[in-house]
Write a structure and sequence with these properties.
- The chain is α/β, with parallel strands linked by helices and 294 residues long.
- It has one domain: Vaccinia Virus protein VP39 (Rossmann fold), CATH 3.40.50.150.
- The chain is built from nine helices and ten strands.
- Strands 5-4-3-6-7-10-8-9 form an eight-stranded mixed β-sheet.
- About 9% of the residues have low confidence.
Length: 294
């Protein structure tokens, strides 16, 4: 089984949006069959690079867990851990998890267009990757079928959060790990408990997320906060405005040259995961374990 015990973690488009992303949207470019709407991020779009790199950090963390438990020489009887990505979106995370050494990576998403894109882009190139269209509350997997479940930037979109968490718990094997990432309500929608983003139903603080996961029966071993690294933090301090707010204030074509260069050059290592100052973090990453039965 995959242990969720963390290791030390190193610091790591014409669609204008407000700080909440997706509140103000314009016609966006297409990448294959997918459209950038503000509901999910997509790779390969320079003006989206800040948001994409920010999301990749959670997958990099998950990939380190997979790599620690992947066999050095995969064999049919030891193919590597089975990983579920619940709410897989575009599918880039599936490829990252497979590359890290997973023996089987299952993506599930409700959107049929997204699933077709994943099939055409990732499933055809890697036999370890599969995808299904399904509700996350009724995952098409047997009990205890996976060693690691990841669900990133999903929980804030759902209405039946207890049902969703019960479904994740059902399919994750005892002593398996569950990773949940979500925006930090205190910085994503400051001064309000009501999400401004029309795609969000509920957002969480670190304490609220921990309480929700604990009530669902997860053992929450750690909550990490995603923060800007040195360069992004310096730009934010210099400009006196939070970067997400700054990026959402105008359409990308109206960004100044320095801001555009910053966004286009943003990499996942421009962010860092930390255990301190969670209330000031951009995103939260809960590291959970499924306790073995009696």
């Amino acid at each position: 089984m995959i242990s969720s015990e963390p290791e030390p973690t190193p610091p790591t488009s014409p669609a204008p949006r407000t700080v909440a992303r997706g509140v103000t949207t314009h016609v966006a470019p297409r990448r294959d069959a997918l459209v950038l709407t503000g509901e999910r991020t997509l790779p390969g779009i320079p003006d989206e690079r800040y948001w994409f790199a920010r999301h990749v950090v959670a997958y990099e963390y998950a990939a380190t867990l997979v790599a620690r438990h992947a066999p050095t020489s995969p064999a049919p009887q030891h193919p590597g851990p089975t990983v579920l990505d619940a709410g897989c979106g575009e599918g880039y995370g599936l490829a990252m998890l497979a590359e890290a050494g997973a023996g089987r990576v299952v993506g599930v998403d409700l959107d049929a267009t997204v699933v077709a894109h994943v099939e055409a882009t990732y499933v055809v190139t890697d036999p370890r990757i599969e995808v299904a269209a399904a509700e996350l509350m009724t995952l098409p997997l047997a009990d205890d079928a996976v060693d690691l479940t990841v669900s990133f930037q999903v929980i804030e979109h759902l209405h039946d959060i207890p049902g969703y968490l019960a479904s994740l718990r059902r399919v994750t094997a005892p002593d398996g790990a569950v990773l949940i990432a979500t925006p930090n309500r205190l910085t994503f929608t400051p001064d309000s408990e009501v999400p401004v983003n029309p795609f969000h139903t509920r957002e969480f603080t670190a304490a609220e997320l921990t309480d929700e996961l604990t009530r669902a029966g997860f053992v929450v071993e750690e909550v990490l906060g995603l923060h800007h690294g040195e360069r992004l933090a310096a730009v934010e301090a210099q400009r006196g405005t939070a970067l997400p707010e700054l990026l959402g204030a105008t359409a990308p074509e109206h960004w100044d040259a320095d801001l555009r260069e910053l966004v286009h050059a943003t990499e996942p290592d421009g962010f860092m995961l930390r255990t301190d100052d969670l209330d000031a973090s951009l995103d939260l990453l809960a590291v959970c374990r499924i306790a073995p039965g009696p």
